[in-house]
């Protein structure tokens, strides 16, 4: 019987795949009684959000990073193995990796520790990259969150299956109250039409296009106001503010950061604009619907 699931994370910032993983962990904990542990660098937003979700957080002993280094992954394999052995203490445990870079780092250590490994494929990665391909040998099971992500990985792992991300949405949020709170916080007029963005600032999500559209909407009707819920990606929040000024919508655009719960973000909008032509799984769109 499965007693424990370890969820390692390497970075500091939070995104949709982290939220989905925490939701899955709570479901496993509640429905199957397994302990779910988030293993990550100390003091990160990931650690804080995991604690809010009721999950135990363990320190990985590493500094946050979003990049992989093959030499480091090999050099640190025994250190990571020792961390996993410390947390599992001989229990029947599985290491659950929710991105390919984490699989590269912690999948090898998990194998060395004799633990089961599950890989949850959330992104549209460069699956031709040799270190990525090598890491696909580590998992006992590969789970994709959509047709697009399964197609990206099934050439290398024909046993990959597709499972929908778990959702927990509170339908009780009052749109009028949420909208009024955002309007007052930004001193927007009573008749403002609020257009929103939900997602971190990655190039593939086209945040610059969002601001281009914002400029066109403002030209058509001065009542339009814009809010972008997200954190740094390929663009920083400071760069997004500069772009908003370039397009002439700086005074009409708010950047409150990445906020939880998502229901509160969606509830305050009159229109959600999602410009990404390709998404691994358009979670925000489903949540809005």
Key phrases:
12 helices, 289 residues, alpha/beta
Describe it for me?
By secondary structure, the protein is of the alpha/beta class. The protein is built from twelve helices and eleven strands. Strands 3-2-1-4-5-6-7 form a seven-stranded parallel sheet, with helices on both faces. Helix 1 links the parallel strand 1 and strand 2. Helix 4 crosses helix 5. The protein is elongated.
Distance between the termini: 37 Å
**What is the percent of helical residues?**
40-55%
Helical segment count: 12
* Beta-strand segment tally: 11
Overall spatial form:
elongated
The major β-sheet equals:
7 strands, parallel
Topology readout:
Elements (H helix, E strand, L loop, with lengths): L3 E5 L7 H17 L2 E6 L4 H8 L3 E4 L10 H6 L1 H12 L4 E5 L2 H13 L3 E6 L8 H6 L5 E4 L2 H7 L7 E2 L12 H11 L7 E6 L8 H14 L3 E6 L7 H10 L6 E2 L7 H6 L3 E2 L10 H6 L1
Parallel strand pairs: 1-2, 1-4, 2-3, 4-5, 5-6, 6-7, 8-9, 8-11, 9-10
Helix pairs in contact: 4-5
Brief rundown of the structure:
With 289 residues, this protein is an alpha/beta fold. It is 40% helix and 17% strand. Helix 10 (237-246) links the parallel strand 9 and strand 10 (253-254).
């Amino acid at each position: 019987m499965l007693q424990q699931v370890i969820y390692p994370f390497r970075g500091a910032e939070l995104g949709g795949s982290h939220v989905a993983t925490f939701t899955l962990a709570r479901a496993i904990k509640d429905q199957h009684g397994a302990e779910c542990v988030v293993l990550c660098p100390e003091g990160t937003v990931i650690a804080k959000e995991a604690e809010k979700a009721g999950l135990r957080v363990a320190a990985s002993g590493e500094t946050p990073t979003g990049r992989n280094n093959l030499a480091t992954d090999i050099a640190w394999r025994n250190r990571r193995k020792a961390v996993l052995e410390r947390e599992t203490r001989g229990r029947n445990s599985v290491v659950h990796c929710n991105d390919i870079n984490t699989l590269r780092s912690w999948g090898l250590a998990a194998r060395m520790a004799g633990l089961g490994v599950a890989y949850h494929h959330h992104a549209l990665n460069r699956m031709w990259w040799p270190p990525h391909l090598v890491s696909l040998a580590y998992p006992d099971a590969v789970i994709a969150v959509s047709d697009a992500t399964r197609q990206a990985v099934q050439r290398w792992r024909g046993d990959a299956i597709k499972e929908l991300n778990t959702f927990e949405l509170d339908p009780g949020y009052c749109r009028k109250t949420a909208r009024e709170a955002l309007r007052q916080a930004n001193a927007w007029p009573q008749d403002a039409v609020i257009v929103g963005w939900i997602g971190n600032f990655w190039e593939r999500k086209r945040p610059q296009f969002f601001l281009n559209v914002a400029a066109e909407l403002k030209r058509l009707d001065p009542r339009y106001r814009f809010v972008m819920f997200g954190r740094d990606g390929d663009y920083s929040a400071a760069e997004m503010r500069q772009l908003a000024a370039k397009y002439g919508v700086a005074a009409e655009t708010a950047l409150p950061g990445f906020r939880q719960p998502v229901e509160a973000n969606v509830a305050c909008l009159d229109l959600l604009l999602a410009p990404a032509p390709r998404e691994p799984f358009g979670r925000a769109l489903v949540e809005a619907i």
